[in-house]
Write a structure and sequence with these properties.
It comes from Streptomyces violaceus. Pfam families: AAA (PF00004), AAA_lid_6 (PF17866), Beta_helix (PF13229). This is Right-handed parallel beta-helix repeat-containing protein. By secondary structure, this protein is of the alpha/beta class. It is built from 14 helices and 66 strands. The strands form 4 sheets. The chain has a 37-stranded parallel beta sheet that branches. It has a 22-stranded mixed beta sheet, covered by helices on one side. The chain has a 5-stranded parallel beta sheet with strand order 61-62-63-60-64, sandwiched between helices. A hairpin with an 8-residue loop joins strand 1 and strand 2. The longest helix is centred in the C-terminal third of the chain and has 22 residues. It is globular and about 100 Å long. The relative contact order is 0.04. About 5% of the residues have low confidence.
Length: about 800
């Protein structure tokens, strides 16, 4: 067969149709072919827009994958409108407004087709089409990998989305595809997305990873069912559900997620069965809003890499955990806000660094037949209206088993608290609670410790082997109202003296002051402030501007930055004094642009700047909220504005610091939602100009481009402060500071060796400045440890001196 020709084998039933012909173009061959004919394409590149409208077989030569290239200069390279078979082709698209492969009708089969394109979509299926797509690959860094739209369906088996500029697989408009053993990775949007009423996605044995966004995103009344799937290595949440979405995960694995492993909101419903969630940076399960619900059965949530609760339920949402394990996390379960509820049955909460169960702001939690082990606090009911039930649970190896404070009123029945370090049950600050048939054994403090005249009910409870006593009751002092204090019925203790009499007020105060484990605060949450823990000391006043400027002056280098910040501070301070004197004050725009390389102290200076403005009364709090593109930009229309508003609200009264802000306005923006974030931010800065200070930061050249293409943003900022790279002397000083802080010393000659090291160190675009200096110090400490570990009886000098030989090798 000649180069660039198409051989058509006619397979009609009539004898005169059983023949073979050759054609110079694919279009001519398709025109001549009838249903059932086989078109074998010779190796070559075909600059044609193919339209397959008959049930033919179109294939490349056997044994030569990729030898047939369909690559027109524009338009759709391959359109299928019939139940044809297409196999062994290499399709290239160049039209950003059109898909590379378009399937519009019929039940065609696509096998071993590779799509390499920069199109709106790699493969697009729409209308009544129901294709079977096997072993196909899509590489489309400009758009969607596979799009199934407008009621279409189909089965995709062993397919791979190698790269996508937007979602890897997008399902919209009532479409309902099925994915089997597919891989989706290196996408710039979500890995799998389904949106819109009647849209449905089913995936079995698939893997979604290396995603710059959410791994799976289901929104707008869409449904999805994932079985035996892996979702990992995303930059945003692992799984996102929003606006009446419904998702079922069975036998799935979600891991290595920097944000929430699973986040669901706005009446979404999630069912998890035999699914593991691990190595997540925020919440394992994050559940928000009335009507939102998650049901987890035989699931495991563990190995958090951040400082957030594993399961977070708030704003009226519901979570049910049945036969689950939650372990190796900072906090296990936090339930907040009136209407929020968590039901936990036959589950294990263990290896919890802080609080296993926290209930606050009027929420409810019910635990039945659960086991809590190795936690600082077993269960903490924090404030008025918060309550629920602990029924037939065991709490083992906690610092404190159950805490009830500030009017909370739980019911605890038939529970056993074994070996608490501080107290089995601690009730204070007007907490209530009813404890029936509960037992505390082996407490390092009291069994039941009730203070402040708290109106707690104890019935048929027992304590054994409690170091300080089985029961301790203390009122709130001499002015306590009559009739306050616990109600105790049929309670026993192994102490010969029985129940202890109420202690003097001083004893109660002393007991609180010696119980630091009871005072841990809630961790910070992205869009919902955590409820405060009970405080025993008044909040310390913020530092003066003079003190903060002193810390700024103590930073290594940054002389021009310090001058700029001082000039701004002086302007604001004098303006404040002029207003107090009844004079007009010059308007000072407080929003700033920070430019410079990584590690030059931009975040540190932003934090100090916020604290200075708070000390001058310009900002209410002065706290810093640091965000980047992934925190502001969503994957679908409308979500970006919501994310940006949430970040702005979190920064209210302080500083919103947007790192790498230029990423919101990429040079090749296309359909990027970064512009929506910028537009939302500009409006918020105008509407709430006195509530938040915004600082945008990034590389110098990129920030100059960012401001030039967004004049609306540029006009909102008063000045640009440039952070220069650190010189060898500055880097040496940072190492010296680190050494002093960690009680090390530089031996004779080590400082000179460090200076030479930093002089010769390559300083390309990825040079980390201060971060590099700290990493160098850490490397020296590691090498020092390896050296000193071999010394049998090291001296103080051995343990503290860092030598030139401890320096790492130059890269």
């Amino acid at each position: 067969m000649a180069q660039g020709t198409v051989q058509v084998t006619h397979t009609g039933t009539s004898r005169w149709r059983r023949r073979t012909g050759e054609y110079a173009s694919l279009a001519a061959a398709l025109e001549a072919a009838a249903d059932g004919d086989v078109l074998t394409v010779a190796p070559g590149t075909y600059r044609e827009n193919l339209v397959v409208q008959r049930a033919v077989t179109l294939r490349g030569p056997e044994g030569s994958p990729g030898s047939v290239r369909i690559a027109p200069v524009d338009g759709v390279p391959l359109t299928v409108r019939a139940s044809a078979v297409v196999q062994d082709l290499y399709v290239e698209g160049q039209d950003s407004a059109a898909p590379a492969v378009l399937v519009e009708e019929g039940t065609p089969e696509l096998r071993d087709v590779r799509v390499v394109t920069r199109s709106a979509a790699g493969i697009e299926v729409r209308g009544n089409a129901r294709p079977t797509v096997r072993r196909c690959a899509v590489d489309n860094p400009a758009g969607v990998g596979i799009a199934v739209l407008d009621g279409a369906g189909g089965v995709f088996e062993e397919c791979e989305v190698v790269a996508a500029g937007q979602s890897g697989v997008a399902v919209r408009g009532g479409a309902h595809p099925r994915l089997e053993r597919c891989r989706v990775h290196h996408t710039s949007g979500s890995g799998l997305s389904a949106t819109g009423e009647n849209s449905a996605l089913e995936a079995v044995g698939c893997e979604i990873y290396e995603v710059r966004g959410s791994g799976v995103q289901i929104t707008g009344r869409a449904t999805a069912h994932l079985t035996d799937c892996d979702v990992h290595r995303t930059t945003a949440d692992g799984v996102t559900l929003d606006t009446d979405a419904v998702l079922t995960l069975a036998d799935c694995r979600i891991h290595d997620i920097p944000e929430n492993a699973v986040d669901l909101r706005s009446r979404s419903v999630l069912t998890l069965t035999r699914t593991t969630v691990r190595q997540f940076g925020r919440n394992g399960l994050s559940v928000w809003d009335p009507g939102t619900r998650v049901d987890a059965n035989q699931c495991e949530i563990f190995d958090s890499t951040g400082d957030y609760p594993a399961v977070w339920v708030s704003d009226g949402a519901t979570a049910v955990l049945d036969s689950c394990r939650v372990h190796d996390v900072p906090d296990a379960l936090f339930v907040l806000d009136r209407g929020s509820r968590a039901d936990v049955v036959d589950s294990d909460l263990s290896q919890v660094r802080n609080t296993a169960v926290s209930v606050s702001d009027g929420a409810t939690a019910q635990l039945d037949d659960c086991r809590i082990r190795d936690a600082a606090t077993g269960a903490w009911f924090r404030d008025h209206g918060s309550g629920g039930t602990l029924n037939n649970c065991t709490l083992d190896g906690t610092q404190t088993g159950v805490i009830v404070t500030k009017g909370a009123d739980p019911t605890v029945e038939r529970c056993t608290i074994d070996s608490p370090a501080e107290a089995g049950v601690y009730v204070s600050a007007g907490g209530r609670g009813s404890f029936q048939s509960c037992r505390v054994t082996g407490s390092g403090g009291y069994g039941f410790h009730v203070i402040d005249g708290s109106r707690t009910t104890l019935r048929k409870c027992r304590t054994e082997r409690c170091t300080r006593g089985g029961y301790e009751f203390a009122d709130s002092g001499a002015d306590a109202a009559s009739g306050t204090g616990p109600l105790v019925e049929d309670c026993t203790s192994d102490e010969s003296a029985g129940l202890r009499a109420p202690a003097a007020p001083e004893t109660a105060v002393q007991a609180v002051s010696h119980s630091p484990g009871l005072l841990g605060a809630l961790p910070e949450q992205r869009a919902q402030p955590a409820p405060p823990a009970p405080a025993v000391e008044p909040e310390q006043p913020s530092r003066t501007s003079k003190a903060v400027l002193g810390e700024l002056d103590a930073l290594v280098g940054l002389e021009s930055v310090k001058r700029e910040v001082r000039a701004l501070t002086d302007m604001i301070e004098v303006g404040r004094r002029r207003q107090q004197a009844g004079l007009k004050a010059a308007s000072v725009k407080r929003h700033l642009v920070f430019t410079g390389s990584p590690g030059t102290g931009k975040t540190t200076v932003a934090r100090l700047y916020g604290e200075i403005l708070a000390s001058l009364g310009v900002l209410e709090k002065g706290h810093l909220v640091e965000v980047s593109r992934v925190d502001l930009v969503g994957e679908h229309i409308g979500s970006t504005a919501i994310r940006t508003q949430e970040a702005f609200e979190k920064a209210r009264g302080g500083v919103l610091f947007i790192d790498e802000a230029y990423a919101l306005s990429p040079e090749d923006a296309g359909r990027d939602f970064g512009k929506e974030a910028i537009d939302t931010l500009v409006k918020l800065m105008e509407d709430h100009r006195d509530a938040v200070v915004v600082i945008v930061a990034g590389y110098t050249a990129e920030m100059e481009r960012f401001l030039s293409v967004n004049p609306g943003v540029a006009s909102r900022f008063s000045r640009t402060i440039t952070f220069s790279d650190y010189g060898p002397e500055d880097l040496l000083r940072i190492v010296e500071q680190q050494a002093e802080e960690h009680e090390y010393r530089l031996a004779l000659g080590a400082a000179e060796a460090l200076g030479k090291y930093f002089t010769e160190l390559p300083k390309g675009p990825a040079f980390g400045n201060g971060r590099t200096a700290r990493q160098t110090f850490e490397a020296m400490v590691e090498r020092h440890a390896s050296r000193v570990a071999q010394v049998a009886e090291p001296s103080t000098d051995d343990l503290t001196l860092l030598y030139a030989e401890d320096l790492p090798e130059l890269p």
